[in-house]
Amino acid sequence: MKKILPVVCFFLSLTFRAQLFSFNPGEHHYAELSLENSTVLFTYITNLTADSVVMEWRKIEDTLPEAGLPGDGWFTEMCDPGSCYIDLPNNGVMPGPIAPGEEGFVKLILNPQGQEGSGLVHYWVYPAGQMELHEDFYFHVWTPGTVGIAEQNTESISVYPNPASSVLNIQTHEMGLCKIFSADGKEVRSIHIANPGYTITEVGGLPEGLYLVMLNDGVTKMEIAREQ
C-alpha cells in the first residue's frame, strides 16, 4: 500500500493541474502587429476550480526585439487587472481573490515603432505561492512580411499548396486537434486528425490573407490567395 499511494497522489495532482484555468483565445495567442501603431492583445484566464484563487503570473521567456525609446525599438507594456507596467516585468500577482468561473487577464500593448521583427512571450499562471501548479500560455507576434516564430517549429506539420485557394493538404506525423488561426488570432477552423499522414480540409470560404496552422507544438504559416 505504501508503494501505491505516491503513484495515486501523483496522478491526482496531474488531474488537478489540468483543471485549474482556461485561456481565451487559448494557450497560444497569435497576432500580426501594425508596424506604426499600437496593438492590444488580451488573454483572459478563467478560474476553473471550486474555490476563489489569487492568481500569480511569471514571465518565463521573452524573445521580442529589444525595446527602445520612442521611435527606436519596440515599445512594450504589460497589464493585469491591478496594474500596467512599462516593459515586461518578470512576475506579479493579480488582485483578488478571483471567484470560481470569474476571470483575470494579461494584456500586452505592443508597438514596433517601424522596426520589423517577431518573437514570443511565454508566461506561467498559478495560484499564488504554488508555482508547481503552473500552466503555460504564450503570445506569438510578428510584423507584416516577417518570417517569425510561427515558422520556427515546423518539423511536425507541413501544408500544401501554399498559397492555397480552395483545399489545403495537411501533412503530419502526429494526431490531435489541428487549428487554423487568422492573422488577428481568431480560430477559423479546427480539424480532428485521427491518423498520421495527409488530411484535406476546405479553405475556399476563408478570406485571402495569412493564416497559422497549429497541431500540438507544431506551427506553420499558410496563405490563402484566389486563383487568377
In short:
The chain is mainly β. The chain has one helix and 17 strands.
From the alpha-carbon coordinates, what is the Rg to the nearest angstrom? Answer: 20 Å
Task: Give the CA-CA distance, first to last residue.
Answer: 70 Å
Give the class from helix and strand content and strand pairing: mainly beta
- Spatial order of the strands in the main sheet? 1-3-8-5-6
Task: Summarize the main sheet.
Answer: 5 strands, antiparallel
Give the tally of β-strands. Answer: 17
Order of helices and strands: HEEEEEEEEEEEEEEEEE
Explain the overall architecture.
The strands form four sheets. Strands 1-3-8-5-6 form a five-stranded antiparallel beta sheet, with no helix packed on it. The protein is mainly beta and 228 residues long. It has one helix and 17 strands.
Helix/strand layout:
Blueprint: H1 4-17, E1 21-24, E2 28-32, E3 39-47, E4 55-62, E5 75-79, E6 84-86, E7 91-93, E8 103-111, E9 118-127, E10 135-142, E11 157-160, E12 167-172, E13 176-182, E14 187-193, E15 197-202, E16 209-215, E17 218-224
Parallel strand pairs: 2-10
Antiparallel strand pairs: 1-3, 3-8, 4-7, 4-9, 5-6, 5-8, 9-10, 11-12, 12-15, 13-14, 13-16, 16-17
List keywords for this structure.
1 helix, globular, 228 residues, single chain, 17 strands, 5-stranded mixed beta sheet, 5-stranded antiparallel beta sheet, disordered N terminus, mainly beta
